[in-house]
Amino acid sequence: MKWYELKEQAAGEKRLMALWFVYKTLGKRAVQFVTIFVAFFAFSFSKVVRNFTLKNLRVIYSFTKDKSARPCLFNAYRLVLNYAFSLVDRMEVFCGKFSAEKLDFKDKNQEKSVIELLNAGNGALFICSHVGNVEVLRAFINDARFVTNPHVNIFLSESQCRIFNGFLKKIRKETRTTAFPVEKISVDTAIELKERLDRGEIAFIAGDRVSAGAPNVTFRADFLGESVDFPLGTFKLAQLMETNVYFITAIKTKNDRYDVYLRPFVPDSENSKSENLKKMCDEYIAFIERSVMAAPLQFYHFYDLFSENE
Length: 310
Prior knowledge:
A 7-stranded mixed β-sheet has the order 1-9-8-2-5-3-4, with helices on both faces. It has a two-stranded antiparallel sheet with strand order 6-7. Helix 1 packs parallel to helix 7 (about 160-170) and helix 2 packs across helix 4. The chain has helices at about 15-25, 30-45, 45-65, 75-95, 110-120, 135-140, 160-170, 185-200, 230-240, 275-295; strands spanning about 105, 125-130, 150-155, 175-180, 200-205, 220-225, 225-230, 245-250, 260-265. By secondary structure, the chain is α/β, with parallel strands linked by helices. The protein has a single domain (about 5-310), classed as Glycerol-3-phosphate (1)-acyltransferase.
């Protein structure tokens, strides 16, 4: 089963608005408390999510030997709960209440470098993943350290998370953001995106899920000890943009703080385009593998990621 074949597991719009009311009246901790029970019932009554989470944990544990990721029902629930908590953080980010001070860049030189790059009016494309919670980086983009907060272009699934994304639109603080549906990426999309990046805008696109619009445009890589298909189109698009490319992820730690890992991709001037494309793919796989090892219970793929390649 592919990720885009799963049905959305989000609560209904009315329940989400009720959680928003709890947040406004009682604060974030109250919402997190309620989320513990919401996640438990979602985990208990969704056999698909429960089975796939356990299956993915078996692969993670086999590769990492991390005892915190042993494939048992309790750890599977913890992973689902972590995801639910990440949605609460996302809610806080969208309403402009999440502070950039909660983001700790592990490489301060890279943090400084990307701020200088964007302040100089240069564009950048960030290839993210479904490990951790990249949405919290909106707080960084809106930080006062930028001369002009860059316009953000994001690629989202139009069919998945429709209810939750609709809820976020209702509560969000106005930001300079343009969303592109991943199911409808075309030549026109690439042309428009390049024009935007050339004038200093930035873009975020995930590189760890096969495209719903082009499921056969893939490359196979060894990931966590298994052979897995990844979306080649993401990396071809990045190369086509001829802009600054970064791999990025945000891993939650304690007290609602996040460690941010940022790695620039530097093509080899002596390589051909195809060689540099492979280099980009290989470095990205290594990057997200390290992210999974840093936080195995923040691996938010609730589908048959590994078995689909058997």
